[in-house]
Design goal:
Layout: H1 2-23, E1 29-33, E2 38-46, E3 50-54, E4 60-64, E5 68-73, H2 94-124, E6 128-142, H3 145-159, E7 166-170, E8 177-188, E9 191-212, E10 219-240, E11 248-265, E12 269-273, E13 282-286, E14 289-308, E15 311-336, E16 341-367, E17 372-396, E18 400-401, H4 403-416, H5 418-421, E19 425-439
Antiparallel strand pairs: 1-2, 1-5, 2-3, 3-4, 6-8, 6-19, 7-9, 8-9, 9-10, 10-11, 10-12, 11-14, 12-13, 14-15, 15-16, 16-17, 17-18, 17-19
Helix pairs in contact: 3-4
């Protein structure tokens, strides 16, 4: 009986072993651990308490069966659903739909509010208005013309003399004078057109010192006089608002400008000795000088206006590109008391300019009532020159034009002394004034 029992036990044991071996077919198994880990490998052996697993990298791992949740074959397939219709995203709940609609509605409301605000700004920025400006004040003109011609002629005169004779013009210092301005501006929606004119008068003093005389010696030479410098300016500008707004406005601008500058030095007196070819002694006499200049051309730049309450600031920057002419006329009528001789000499110059510069304009306005505003402003203009052509006439009443003096003078003006003597013309004004505005939309 005991032998039979042993045989049965052996058969059961070998059956279990065969069953285990067939269940762990060389195919990999997936082992799900209780701690959530997943191990894939081939179960090579096991006991009642543990199993040995061969991992894909060829190493083996011993796992306690108490830590195993379940074991599955890797090639096991999940039964295919009978309905093969693709599964779409889950259907949102009514609460989720309502929440999404609320968020979309808020975003759209913000966009609509911005669009409506911008539309209102554009509507409020529309203009149909005429502004008339009148202003008066003071300013200075530092005109390079008179001193430029005096310098070149002084060098030419010194080169033609000997015994250390020379002329040296002292650069004049301008004094302030009167300034007036007038401007009309018409604004229509994004477009702004302006036309205007201004005048400025300044004073300066001419002083030329040097040595002159006969072959026997030299004596001091002096030319002195006061003169006025007047500058007149007319212009037209056109600008376009790139971002219309009721509180501020920025506009690129193009324009056309024309300047006339003139000096009349009619009270200048010359005192000296030995003015060739006639004089060999001391002389004196009037030496009036007249200088004129005309420039015209185009400009480009930007204008910026900003408003707050009843105040407004208007600024403008204009880059100038101009061409024009310059003239110089100097007439000496001298008398020598010792010999009772008189003599006249003249120097006339005509040349063509190319000028480049800029205008900066700034106005502060205060709106009063009845369409009237009061303003104060600063205007600054400056430009430099390039000489392109010169015509020269030098002579006296007895000998007429000296060809040698003409050739030398033209060379001095155009090539040698002229380019180095050129200076910058500047004009600055400070004004106060009143503005009348008529709004056609009201």
């Amino acid at each position: 009986m005991r032998r039979l029992k042993n045989i049965i036990r052996a058969a059961i044991f070998f059956g279990c072993m065969i069953f285990s071996l067939t269940s762990v077919h060389p195919n990999d198994q997936v082992i799900y651990m209780r701690d959530g880990k997943v191990i894939t490998g081939e179960i090579v052996s096991q006991t009642a308490y543990k199993m040995i697993v061969k991992l894909p990298d060829g190493s083996t791992k011993e796992i306690s069966k108490q830590d195993i949740k379940r074991v599955a074959f890797k090639e096991a397939k999940t039964p295919e659903p009978k309905d093969k219709t693709p599964v779409g995203p889950p259907t949102p709940t009514p609460e989720e739909i309502a929440k999404q609609q609320e968020e979309d509605s808020k975003k759209q409301a913000v966009l609509d509010e911005k669009a409506e605000k911008r539309k209102k700004q554009i509507e409020e920025a529309k203009r149909n208005r005429l502004d008339i400006f009148l202003g008066t004040g003071s300013g200075t003109v530092n005109f390079q013309g008179a001193n430029f011609y005096d310098n070149v002629i002084a060098v030419g005169s010194s080169l033609g003399q000997d015994s250390g004779k020379f002329e040296y013009p002292i650069e004049p210092k301008p004094k302030s004078g009167k300034a007036n301005s007038f401007e009309v501006r018409y604004s229509w929606n994004r477009y702004v057109g302006e036309v205007g004119a201004s005048s400025l008068t300044s004073t300066a003093t001419q002083n030329i010192i040097g040595l002159d005389g006969s072959s026997s010696g030299t004596f001091p030479k002096f030319i002195h006089g006061n003169y006025d410098v007047s500058m007149k300016h007319v212009y037209g500008n056109f600008s376009y608002s790139v971002y219309p707004h009721p509180k501020y406005d920025i506009r690129p601008v193009i324009g056309y400008h024309q300047f006339w500058t003139k000096t009349e030095n009619s009270n200048s007196i010359a005192i000296g000795t030995g003015a060739p070819p006639s004089f060999t002694e001391q002389y004196f006499g009037p030496d009036p000088t007249s200088v004129a200049e005309g420039l015209k051309g185009f400009s480009y730049g930007v204008q910026y206006d900003i408003k707050f309450e009843k105040f407004e600031i208007r600024t403008g920057l204009h880059i100038l590109q101009m061409k024009g002419y310059g003239t110089y006329d100097r007439q000496l009528n001298a008398y020598a008391p010792a010999s009772a001789q008189s003599q006249s000499e003249s120097i006339d110059v005509y040349n063509k300019w190319v000028a480049k510069g800029a205008i900066i304009d700034l106005k502060f306005l205060y709106s009063w009532k009845y369409g009237v505003s009061f303003w104060t402003g600063l205007n600054s203009m400056s430009w430099t020159y390039t000489m392109s052509e010169t015509a020269l006439s030098v002579g006296n009443e007895s000998s007429g034009v000296d060809p040698q003096s003409y050739v030398l003078g033209k060379l001095l003006f155009e090539s040698l002394v002229g380019p180095g003597s050129l200076k910058e013309t500047k004009a600055t004004t400070i004004q106060i004034g009143a503005t009348y505005s008529y709004d056609f939309n009201k």
